[in-house]
Specification:
alpha+beta; Conserved hypothetical protein from pyrococcus furiosus pfu- 392566-001, ParB domain; Conserved hypothetical protein from pyrococcus furiosus pfu- 392566-001, domain 2; nine-stranded mixed sheet; 16 helices
Length: 433
């Protein structure tokens, strides 16, 4: 089962760097060009220069975003902007955030987790990955030999055995803390006590780890470990992960909605007619905040154990689609997929609607030619009103139990099936390989 080890984390020197909020960023895969520029401008030592450096027109083999990241890392370590921990440690990480007007707290422990091939069923994926993202992360790892952001992993401890230890550690002042631009609170405690480390290791050693976020980074770490080889204790045989209990009250998954674009000649009435063969349909008007009301209905249908999602063409009306009781998913869904995969709302949408009725095959879904994604249903409707997209499909969030069931079955969910919120930030602690 999982092996977690302490490491001498690299952290910002607060005396030289100032407000930590000006130094951290979200993970690279949610940073757009405008965000990148903003982080560059926020502070000359912002982690963006390491994690996602700018690409310049004059870039070449000797001077590019990866060589510059490595240069900044060397420079900041030499100047003392970044400093290494005196001794190996694990790191308690708490995030405070607000969703739907409610304040929540999520607690995790960050350490080095031994890299395992998926077939060992120690670390389990649940989503497909894309080659381009892994190639980018591989070049960064080769040049910098470091992890700048933790992979987000989950483990199951129904008894919440570590909560007492976590509460004791968090009773003292954090070693690093800030509130970011989105109002999320981040606090980090160094856990260097050998008995505490041993307690955490003992609990986690019997657990499987489910990757919540960071599949590309984990598969890059697998490839990097194969490339560098070395014995089992080599630092590159481990990847920095923040591990959160599946039963943590602050663990939250948000839905990821689908937006369709660039299809020729969508006949929406004909599409609804075709959908009626497998789904019950009901139409709702979306004026005066009725979209929130519709999302409440969508969630209530899911609470009854029904498969449902919404489809809109114009952003002003939306149709609720509820799978009929008599539909035989075992017959209609791919035979090579597990029963858990066949029961996913997002898989049903992918196979029965996107592929069967709209002709968007797996390759088109991966390359983004006809699909984009958003976690905000209001943005989805705005895209329709603006005319940039043709259809929007709104989904419920995938329950954690379904995510882990698919992972344990050996399947991977369709791309962008889950959005664990919030993501661990980049820059609180780094792992040098």
């Amino acid at each position: 089962m999982a092996t977690i080890v302490p490491f001498r984390g690299i952290r910002y020197n607060r005396q030289l760097s100032g407000n930590l909020a000006n130094l951290i960023t979200p993970p690279y895969d949610v940073i757009g060009p405008t965000d990148q520029d903003r982080y560059y401008e926020s502070h000359p030592n912002n982690i963006i220069r390491l994690e996602l450096g700018r690409t310049l027109p004059e870039d070449g083999p000797e001077d590019n975003r990866y060589t510059r990241s490595a240069g900044y890392l060397r420079e900041w370590l030499t100047e003392g902007v970044l400093v290494a921990e005196d001794q190996p440690a694990l790191y308690l990480y708490r995030q405070d955030f607000t969703v739907a007007g409610k304040r929540k707290t999520r607690t995790g422990i960050t350490g080095g987790v031994k890299i395992e091939p998926y077939e060992n069923k120690v670390v389990l994926p649940h989503e497909e990955t894309l080659p381009g993202h892994k190639a980018d992360r591989m070049e960064l790892m080769r040049h910098c030999r470091a992890n700048f952001s933790p992979i987000f992993g989950l483990y199951a401890d129904r008894n919440q055995s570590l909560d007492g230890l976590f509460a004791r550690v968090a009773s003292r002042d954090p070693d690093a803390a800030c509130t970011d631009e989105d109002g999320q609170g981040h606090a980090l405690w160094v856990v260097a006590d050998k008995e505490d480390i041993a307690t955490i290791q003992a609990l986690l050693s019997g657990k499987q780890v489910f990757i919540a976020d960071g599949h590309h980074r984990y598969e890059t770490a697998q490839a990097y470990a194969r490339e560098r080889r070395g014995d089992e204790s080599a630092p590159w045989r481990y990847a920095m992960m923040t591990l959160v209990n599946l039963f943590d009250p602050g663990l939250l998954i948000l839905p990821t909605h689908r937006l369709v674009k660039n299809l020729d000649g969508i006949d929406f009435p004909a599409l609804l007619s075709a959908l009626a063969a497998d789904f019950l349909l009901a139409e709702y008007q979306l004026e005066d905040g009725r979209l929130d009301y519709f999302m409440t209905i969508l969630q209530s249908v899911a609470a009854e154990g029904r498969h449902a999602f919404g489809v809109s063409r114009d952003g002003g009306t939306i149709h609720l689609l509820v799978l009929k009781d008599g539909v035989d998913l075992d017959r209609m869904m791919p035979e090579d997929k597990s029963a858990s995969w066949r029961q996913l709302d997002v898989a049903i949408l992918q196979v029965l609607v996107l592929q069967k009725l709209l002709g968007i095959d797996a390759a088109q879904q991966r390359n983004g030619e006809n699909l984009t994604y958003t976690g905000d249903e209001h943005q989805a409707m705005a895209a329709l009103l603006a005319g940039t997209h043709q259809l929007a499909f709104l989904l419920n969030a995938t329950p954690v139990a379904e995510v882990t069931a698919v992972a344990q079955s050996g399947d991977k969910m369709p791309q962008k099936s889950t959005f664990f919120y919030p993501k661990p930030v980049t820059g609180l602690v780094m792992y040098k390989l």
